[in-house]
Known about the structure:
This protein is an alpha+beta fold. The protein is built from 10 helices and 15 strands.
Amino acid sequence: MAVxxxxxxxxxxxxxxxxxxxxxxxxxxxxxxxxxxxxxxDTLTLDESGKIVYKMDVRKGEPEFVYxxxxxxxxxxxxxxxxxxxSVEADTLGNFTVTGSQESLKLAQVEKDYAYxxxxxxSLARRAEDAVNPEYALSLRQDMGxxxxxxxxxxxRYVMENSTSLSVVPVFFQTFGAELPVFSQSTDAIHFxxxxxxxxxxxxxxxxxxxxxxxxxxxxxxxxxxxxxxxxESISYPEIExxxxxxxxxxxxxxxxxxxxxxxxxxxxxxxxxxxxxxxKPLYEEFNSKGFEIYQVSLDVDKxxxxxxxxxxxxxxxxxCDSRGAQSTYxxxxxxxxxPALFIIADGQLVDGSVVDExxxxxxIRDSLK
Length: 370
């Protein structure tokens, strides 16, 4: 059994032979990409010839993005799979080569292409800013637009041709400065989803693939909303369409009522559950027959908990759930920063009015009903 466990452990271990030129007996920091931040795994001390062998545990089917740093300077990047045997030759300036890992070779090329495009964009931007001649400055900005478009098209081609390689994941999140993501078009949601589907077949348990899926779903949600809004009749509030506890899609614009109370909430909060029973139910019983309806949007990631509360409290109104939680596109459209949050819609228009307690809410509903 001890031998079997030892063999199993070796099978999950990735080995990296590291050589850093001109850095004998110095320290190298090993960092893991934890979705959107670096996590320090280890600090290594190179021998007198600038070499060391490093082994790390990598689960089968869950490759890891691993980076080597010397101080604050990144000197190498890798995508390591279980049982990989990789050699890295680097210098202190950030130049490196990787052998023994096809995924790492692709990642290195991705980083090289991005660094070149970013350098070109920054150079054009500086020259345009310093240009005295307005026509020359305009020409430089046009060159920036061409450079961006050429790089974007090249990256679309790359992710389509390498849809089963994890090297496409960082490509999707590249930016030219804080204001210009490379994949900035709403229709890019299609590329995100297609690649997420392809990667999920190869790496169904990868945290990076799951993060890409989450981003794909969020972008696709925005795309669907834009499509619906463009095709919808003119209304003063954003449309919402979400499933109820039976899984049936319920649309806010289809609610047949003179006055609608739209509320965002979470079933995980005790006070908000009590608000259902102490405030909303009495209001519903009093005004529903007079043309009043409630459209309640849960922002619970745990849909099971939400459905349980709806059933236990026997909520009679329309109750739907957006399991994206804080990432909900609907919450963003309504500028929701905290829950609970509510709005009154009367005759297809959002009603201006202050709600500070049950009495003010009751008055607003009564005044809105004709």
